[in-house]
Amino acid sequence: MPFVTEWSTTDQRNLVVFAPDVLKVFKHYRQRFFWQPEGGGILLGRRRGKHLEVMLATEPSHKDRRSAFSFVREADGHADIAEQAWRQGDKQIDYLGEWHTHPQRVPTPSAIDRLEWGKLVLQRSTLTPILVVVVGTKAIHAELIDGVQDKMLSPIGLSE
Ligand SMILES: [Zn+2]
User: Which domain CATH number covers 48?
Assistant: First the structure.
């Protein structure tokens, strides 16, 4: 019985589907104890019109510097995984966005998160939105951002 993993933005115009494996990665790396390091990676999948299908979340690599309060992603390891997935997926797998964990039950993006996300949007050559996810211990905060009109996804709870 597949687990329901679809969420829509609060204006109901965009649908985001997370594959069960993606949620497994989020749950595995969530920071249940304050001393656990932050983790994160990139989100890969498919865009179908306004809808996103998140098929893969890369896991923190040994190259990433993890600490309890910050997460600095080493682009190389994740980019390799992205390229591999893209080749194996008959070039239909696209970069969708980023995820990282916070030691909060219901996570709130920090000012630094917003700054970093703003940079990601500016780096893109297209106006397609990127999906940014912050994983807390009990819930996920997700937004679609395009630098013009950011959209929040309805709250997503994480089961035990
Ligand atoms: Zn953060």
Answer: 3.40.140.10
Give the domain range for residue 13: 6-157
- Is residue 107 over pLDDT 50? yes
Q: What is the model's pLDDT at position 152?
A: 80
For ligand 1, the distance from its centroid to the CA atom of residue 102, given in whole angstroms, is: 6
Helix (H) and strand (E) counts in the chain: 3, 11
- Asked about 38 being catalytic, the answer comes back as yes
Predicted pLDDT of residue 2? 42
Q: Are 37 and 74 in contact (CB under 8 A)?
A: no
- Other Cβ atoms less than 10 A from the Cβ of 30: the count is 20
pTM score > 0.90 for this model?
no
In angstroms, what is the span from residue 116 Cα to ligand 1's centroid?
9
Residue 27, in any domain of the structure: yes
Is residue 65 assigned to a domain? Answer: yes
All residues with CB under 5 Å from ion ligand 1: 110, 113
